[in-house]
UniProtKB/TrEMBL annotation:
<comment type="similarity">
    <text>Belongs to the class-III pyridoxal-phosphate-dependent aminotransferase family.</text>
</comment>
<dbReference type="GO" id="GO:0008483">
    <property type="term" value="F:transaminase activity"/>
</dbReference>
<keyword id="KW-0032">Aminotransferase</keyword>
<dbReference type="InterPro" id="IPR015424">
    <property type="entry name" value="PyrdxlP-dep_Trfase"/>
</dbReference>
<keyword id="KW-0808">Transferase</keyword>
<protein>
    <submittedName>
        <fullName>4-aminobutyrate--2-oxoglutarate transaminase</fullName>
    </submittedName>
</protein>
<dbReference type="InterPro" id="IPR049704">
    <property type="entry name" value="Aminotrans_3_PPA_site"/>
</dbReference>
<dbReference type="Pfam" id="PF00202">
    <property type="entry name" value="Aminotran_3"/>
</dbReference>
<dbReference type="InterPro" id="IPR005814">
    <property type="entry name" value="Aminotrans_3"/>
</dbReference>
<keyword id="KW-0663">Pyridoxal phosphate</keyword>
<dbReference type="GO" id="GO:0042802">
    <property type="term" value="F:identical protein binding"/>
</dbReference>
<dbReference type="InterPro" id="IPR015421">
    <property type="entry name" value="PyrdxlP-dep_Trfase_major"/>
</dbReference>
<dbReference type="InterPro" id="IPR050103">
    <property type="entry name" value="Class-III_PLP-dep_AT"/>
</dbReference>
<dbReference type="InterPro" id="IPR015422">
    <property type="entry name" value="PyrdxlP-dep_Trfase_small"/>
</dbReference>
<dbReference type="GO" id="GO:0030170">
    <property type="term" value="F:pyridoxal phosphate binding"/>
</dbReference>
Amino acid sequence: MITTNAGWGARREAHVPHGVVTAHPVFAARASGSLLWDVEGNRYIDFVGGIGVQNVGHNHPRVVAAVRAQLERVTHAAFQVAGYGGYVDVAARLNALVGGGEPYKTLLVTTGAEAVENAVKIARAYRNVPGIVAFRGGFHGRTLLGSTLTGMSAPYKQNFGPLAGDVYHTPYPDPYRGFSSDDAIRALEELFATQIAPDRVAAIILEPVQGDGGFLPAGKAFLQALQALTRKHGIVLILDEIQAGFGRTGEMFGFQTAGIQPDLVTVAKSLAGGLPLAGVVGRTAIMDAPAPGGLGGTYAGNPLACAAALAVLDVFEEENLLEKGRALGVTLRAGLDELASQYAEVGTVRGVGPMLALEFVAGGDPFKPDAGFAQAVIDECRAGGLLVIKCGVYRDTVRLLPPLNTPLNVAEEALEILRGAIGRARGSKA
């Protein structure tokens, strides 16, 4: 029996391809709430949460109980063969949460990338034109279309081409580097003038806060201007809420911070508290555009995952998770701002609510990203008992994705570990 991280690492090397990256050389044995223990018994504060999946925390009792009960009834039936209430109930609750009283429908699938692909299919079926506009720095999955939509070359595109056609990229707002919302709208209008006319665009897709791209918020002004532009041209506006959704920004969904109403919304990650479930939620007229049989999947809307999702949504309602998330965000933001004032290597602190990150640069220059320093901080955090991961086009940003119900004393402990990690990284650099 293997009982060490090194032992499992050796076995992994022999059996898992190099293309699958594991951020930390540790192997999880158990987890609860905001904490994770590896096979050697080492305790970590987990500020990764399965990459934004555990907004309700690891092994939440409500989720565990719901899955256990469902396991004794039906584990799989395939919704295209025989319906079951869990699928319909999840759809109804998502329609109410996203639709704001308007007629919306929901397609359930298994992964975030699958949700994105289906959103594009639905938009194209509705508009009957092929063009899709995405944003530089955006991340939308590792499938062929997901990689095409993603606005980063490495590692997602590599030599995987030719990629999907009729996809166009335009700049995303980045105030830290002097690129404003107005600049981004002008760039989009220039794309319409030079590369694809708006009447050939089926949809524009973006994250309200870029996740893997560096925790860049689109901002209220940009999202409102983008909605006005898409409505002017009849273009479907798709908000990818896979990482920003379910309380990560302090609101249930990131688009709500801007007071807009998107046409389609993709959801996944924290929807089912660790079980694989994703979805497309959208206006009924758009969702009904594909002909019968064009949507679905063997495991899509699996009964176990649906039971977990219903429990997750109950937790949000009954345990005031949005309020807890906002309080957590205030604590973390104050701590990160203090670190930024102490260490010149921290170029900026950014994010929304409890979705926060530190970008590391050399000499305080926004155009000198320091990926090496960011990695050193991540490694030192792990040594101190905190798990975090990187993001950003240049991989120079450390992102925090703690469960929203993380106790504030645990958050303070995490900030102290991060403080020490930056200090040690600076010392080793010198």
